Amino acid sequence: MISRVADHCFWFGRYVERAEATARMLTASHSLALDAELEPHQCWRPVLVVSGEEKQFRAAHAPEDDHPAWGDGELVERFMTWDEDNEVSLKRSIVGARWNARQIREVLSLEAWETVNELHLWAAGEASATEWRDHRYGFYRHVRQMTQLCLGLLRSTMLHDAPLDFIWLGVLLERISQTARILDVHHHAFTRLPRRHEVVETALWLSLLRALGGYEPFMKRHQGRVSADTVARFLVGEARFPRSIAYCVHSAHDRLCAIRPAAERELPGGRTLERLRILDGWIVARRSDALTGDTVHDLLTHIVDEAHAICDGLGRELFGYGG
């Protein structure tokens, strides 16, 4: 498999997962702003921090204001949904997924291609703008459903060989970064809020679980006992939940092993594979650690840094980025 095709497969997976994760986060934040009795900036600033676009948003919307516009939920949602200068906006992610899909039409299944192309055409048309204006939840739900359909079709309509391995490696590494960032920012914000009623605090943690698709699995696993520690442990270390960091890191290691077997030391990608193996073991070794306060932040910062380093390593060793 040539490196150009592998690169497009990898980024196709990342963009599809990024679009789905952004839609989830905006859905949860929108609901939180309506129901949780929080100040607007407490709901919407984390969205910008998680996406890494706080500085750009402030430069665009409040360059000389000591009180930036991140308390304006409508403005933040528009920025994270439609802004073409925002590299992680929903629109840019959908365009990126479709563009990479076009480059690999020879390896992508017809049904997966039709799904991502349909999502792209819908997002570029008037129907999506009307849906976003009149039925915000329905807009985000449509994006989630189409991206989830695409991910399901990839698994069920493609050969399980190298192209799918690279696509799913992109999905998993993007998911690791998204889960770690969202958990880090929200855990930091929620644990430092003034003491609130237990019902409100529970609602905050459940909103975080919903943003990461973990509400129902968590409730089955913990029988409704919601706290900062149980939520953090679940999202970091629950090996049976497909969006947890532990599950995604282990699965990413397995995917890279399928692409580049560990026993074949002469093949490119050995350093990145070893880095993934070490990260996998490191996370497993910390399942029993206390996950509170700065401990959570330090752990998640390390995971995000390692995920970025692994993506960079793949670029150098397998995709021919140079450097």
Describe this structure in words.
The chain is an all-alpha fold. It has one domain (3-317). 74% of the residues lie in helices and 0% in strands. It has helices spanning 3-35, 40-51, 54-61, 73-82, 90-103, 110-124, 126-134, 136-157, 162-191, 198-211, 215-222, 228-237, 245-259, 270-285, 294-317. Helix 9 (162-191) runs antiparallel to helix 13 (245-259). The radius of gyration is 20 Å and the shape is globular. The chain starts with a helix and ends in a 6-residue tail after the last helix. The mean pLDDT is 89.
Layout of helices and strands:
Elements: H1 3-35, H2 40-51, H3 54-61, H4 73-82, H5 90-103, H6 110-124, H7 126-134, H8 136-157, H9 162-191, H10 198-211, H11 215-222, H12 228-237, H13 245-259, H14 270-285, H15 294-317
Helix pairs in contact: 1-2, 1-4, 1-5, 1-8, 1-9, 1-10, 2-4, 2-9, 5-6, 6-8, 7-8, 9-10, 9-12, 9-13, 9-15, 13-14, 14-15
